[in-house]
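Batch manifest, entry 17 of 40.
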Amino acid sequence: MPLPAKKLLTSSFFGFTLLVALIAFFLKFNSGQKLFTSEELALYNGTDDSLPILLGILGSVFDVTKGKSHYGAGGGYNHFAGRDASRAFVSGNFTGDGLTDSLQGLSSTEVHSVVGWRDFYIRSYKFVGRLVGRYYDSQGNPTKYLKGVEGKAARGAQLLEKQKNMEAKQPSCNSRWSQDDGGEVWCNDGFPRLVQRPLEIALTGKMSKRCACFNEDQLGQPGLEVYNGCDYLAKRCRV
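Output type: structure tokens
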């Protein structure tokens, strides 16, 4: 029995709507998977007003045109436009060899920080494609290098959490600084001491200290350093 005309029209309309939706999804998916060469990406560096401003980080490319005042010509972040300068996000070296996508030699927490910047761009700007090279192959698939970066970043996150938990057991000093008076540290309970961060070498490859508060019966522990010019039992110290 043939379908009534009304039902036939409804069915045809539903089928057409579904087809349009699928086509739109397909086009959107593919538009977000554009592959760039480094030469192509360099064209989107903010010097041509007819083109969007693009930025790469860990091989992911984002449209940062809405931040033109920062990323456009003359902007404070223009050195990131038209390239993947992943390393500079943590090194602060915005010239020459510093503007590179290589993270070789960075600590696990520094790599974790770069991944955190990529996540910021994912949240804040439009993802438009991938850069073929170190992090993605010619088919747009992640390379072993990217997988290695992700793994190192995960280890960095674990170390940061471990250090946070360890330092929570020994409260940090209060501190303040002003141009007129300089710096000061103090403890509401206990006495300020400089102490080595036990995981710092693993975290950053460097040694550093922090100010922590210790009770009087803890002051004999090895590795505690009294601030220069500060009395042994002073609760406040100038720094």
